[in-house]
Amino acid sequence: MMISKTSTKFNRIEMRFGLLSLLLVSWAFVQAADNDSIVARKFFSEELLNGKSYEMLDELCNKVGHRLSGSEGAAKAVEWGKKIMEQYKFDRVFLQEVMVPHWVRGEKEVGNIRRASGAKQIKVELCALGGSVGTGKDGIVAEVVEVKSLEELSALGKSNIEGKIVFYNRPLDPTLISTGHAYGGAVDQRRSGASEAAKYGAVGVIVRSMTTKLDDVPHTGALKYDSAVVMIPAAAISTIAANTLSKLLIEEQGVTFYFKMSCETLPDVLSYNVVGEIKGSEKPDEIIVVGGHLDSWDLGQGAHDDGTGCVQAIEAVRLFRALGITPKRTIRAVLFMNEENGIRGGKMYAKLAKDNKENHIAAIESDAGGFTPRGFGIKGDEKQVATIVAWKHIFEDYNMGQLGKGWGGADIGPLIDQGTVLMGFRPDTQRYFDIHHTREDTFEKVHKRELELGAAGMGVMLYLLSEYGL
Amino acid sequence: MMISKTSTKFNRIEMRFGLLSLLLVSWAFVQAADNDSIVARKFFSEELLNGKSYEMLDELCNKVGHRLSGSEGAAKAVEWGKKIMEQYKFDRVFLQEVMVPHWVRGEKEVGNIRRASGAKQIKVELCALGGSVGTGKDGIVAEVVEVKSLEELSALGKSNIEGKIVFYNRPLDPTLISTGHAYGGAVDQRRSGASEAAKYGAVGVIVRSMTTKLDDVPHTGALKYDSAVVMIPAAAISTIAANTLSKLLIEEQGVTFYFKMSCETLPDVLSYNVVGEIKGSEKPDEIIVVGGHLDSWDLGQGAHDDGTGCVQAIEAVRLFRALGITPKRTIRAVLFMNEENGIRGGKMYAKLAKDNKENHIAAIESDAGGFTPRGFGIKGDEKQVATIVAWKHIFEDYNMGQLGKGWGGADIGPLIDQGTVLMGFRPDTQRYFDIHHTREDTFEKVHKRELELGAAGMGVMLYLLSEYGL
Predict the structure, then answer these.
(1) CA-based, 20 to 30 A from A340: which of A298, A462, B172, B456?
(2) pTM
């Protein structure tokens, strides 16, 4: 600060008064900041000493199990979620009705590579993509056309595609540091591949699994059919199988692929979002959500996707109770239904918020795995982002100071129209896509302390938002 | 920048000239910084696409296996290290002779809790601490005195300790975010517990395993006998066993503990540090070391401790070859022998550096596991630390921007007397002490991409040090 030598007496008095105010404000600010750091430390210590997130996850994975929308597991998970938040004495626990798709995998899928030479068939690890139609009981067998992109498919055109099985084989880019970015750069093949191939007369689609790992585990995930095109069956094959097939297509003539799947879509089913809240003491009408999605794929246990997000959300709210802190604003743990194949729960939540004229100032979602935390991505205007980024020093003590503009989450996404600031919990990304949407996504893959650090960090973010608003 | 309105013409000219210089310097700086970021990206892309670190680690863990100082495995590891750096065509690969301790575990240890009531004995998972004497073929059985600290032991005194087995049971503090700090706060029990207990006439020592995890896996690690006191046998018991024993000591009278170990120390053995270097093109006499330790404990495979450090060190240097970059200063990968129970290799390396009048400007060590990288700790003067911290932006792109004052490493430690700046590679700490010094420290616990990110980051640090010096 530079002080002019020509200032008048009045200026000097004003300035002194200004400095005094500044000092007082600064002092108050420092006090508040110190206090926030002290409270943050309490959240982390309580969680690391007496946390319930890991035992909750154990129950959800090992007692409830997987919970695809419309399944028995999903129904059990709704009951579980409601009961546990009631046990923890949240002020209000309630369900929100939502109709969800009901896709079933049917019998274990079968697939193999058939070689023209009469050489041995090669059994392939594969699984139906979520939402796929079945193949009929005889399965499908056809020649294979390998492509690396939707553009390459389009360039090949009908003459090269008709009657064949299209094999999408563009791997995740391993040079990207965030595996999430790598996934984002490849997942169009899984999501749109079937309908795009059907436009050129393909009879089926197989997709290289969406993972940076080379192994024999197929990764499912949702496809989206274009209603203007015939629905053809689509499966994911393991990365090892994809490499084997690709090699054979170069080395041998007349390689065909066979697969059989009995998956189908049944009528929609009534399901629920599960919501638990603690009422704010000063501004109860300002609501802050913390959530994960309760549904999962039907392979594995939906541990990292997104059991961890659910238990971290419940835990972030429970920690207020455990620490005897009443939030100034209302905080809500929301277990969204049907993120994986419809986001019906997320859409319903936003609709009801609007219908009920609720004011959601912020929503945090954890849906990137329960790995060691890095920080939060923020979707809001410049000022809102700056407000949150100013708390960086508090999170840096816990190695989760990566606060900046970013992605919120699929389930909280529909709240954006109401001006809600969206925040995505950011764990380390290296291990997530090893197990994402597979039979390997089980409780054992979750590390207790990593899970707890995330839960505590989400609790602290909830605390700061509930103290200061946006 | 505020510009005075009363500046003279001379001032204005000077200022313009100054601004021009500033712009030129800034431009050069920006160019250099941009170029460094481009080179950094090359290190990471090359490693993530074509890295050798994971396959090297596979060989070291699965073909060589564990490699305790003086063992056959250690001798094989020396050969392996030399051969692989020769294969990668480093300019010079050589061995440094060093005499190392030769402690052997002998037969699998046996231990159990004996209850006075005649109730069932409880088998305990335990292992000898490295360097411990054996119990003799009959083993030792005695009453147990539990303490939480060396201070508590001292307060109990001879009358309460004599003839008994001292049980050190202070856990790692779970509220510390860095498990390394938690380890540091508990490890005095393992390191000094035996001799301290012997001072009061104890006949043996059992120590709670040094881990935040609750399981049935005992963790070994070095103890240090005080030459003024009789050597008594010391073992680590699993955290589950420690909790069981602690509970029984409260609930029942006359609980005794039995253990039998045939470990012993044999005469010192000739072994080696393995060194591979690429000569600097401009200042070959300025040497920068990157290293890990080649020895390991005899349980597990020494994968994270410290196979990962060894292959990351080799890889960091190999990447210069792969990218066709000749460093301006000499870079050296050093595989130190005997970190675990003597640091003889580290001491010998520093001695030879001094004897040969070598100028080591910096040394980097990776010995905290091959987990997802966070950054580097730096041990140097303010200016040196500031020089390195100025590169933070380059590392932030790879989530490893935590650069600051910190710990270097045990093996490079003795170089401090020569004014060498020491740097410790910092991976995430959450999982390390789950497997540290146990049978669980195996190749499967290492994640390929996490290992590679660390290797590439170490390569980039080596590059920056070799370009700019300190």
Answers:
(1) A462
(2) 0.93
> Which residues on chain A are in Cβ contact (under 8 Å) with B434?
447
Q: Where in chain B is the domain with CATH 3.40.630.10?
A: 44-103+267-468
The domain A107-262 having CATH identifier 3.50.30.30: the answer here is yes
Residues of B recognised as catalytic: 339
Query: What pLDDT shows up at residue B30?
Result: 58
Q: Domain B108-262: which CATH class? A: alpha beta
pLDDT digits (tens, 9 = 90+) for A82-105: 999 999 999 999 999 999 999 999
Superfamily of domain covering A48-103+267-468: Zn peptidases (3.40.630.10)
Distance separating alpha carbons of residues A13 and A35, to the nearest angstrom: 32
**pLDDT of B313 strictly over 60:** yes
Query: Which residues in chain A are classed under CATH 3.50.30.30?
Result: 107-262
Residue of B4, B53, B319, B428 to mutate when probing chain A, most A C-beta within 10 A: B428
What is the SS3 assignment for B336?
strand
Question: How sure is the predictor about B17, in pLDDT bands with cuts at 50, 70 and 90?
Answer: very low
Contacts of B176-185 with C-beta under 8 Å, sequence gap 24+, read B177/A44, B177/A397, B177/A398, B177/A399, B177/A453, B178/B429, B179/A449, B179/B212, B179/B429, B179/B430, B179/B432, B179/B433, B180/B368, B180/B429, B180/B432, B180/B433, B182/B212, B182/B433, B183/B210, B183/B433, B183/B436
Q: What are A's interface residues with B at a Cβ cutoff of 8 A?
A: 2, 44-45, 48-49, 174-175, 177, 179, 212-213, 372, 374, 397-399, 402, 428, 430-431, 434, 447-450, 453
Q: Which residues of A are catalytic?
A: 339
Q: Contact, A275 vs A94, CB < 8 A?
A: yes
pLDDT in tens, B193-227: 999 999 999 999 999 999 999 999 999 999 999 99
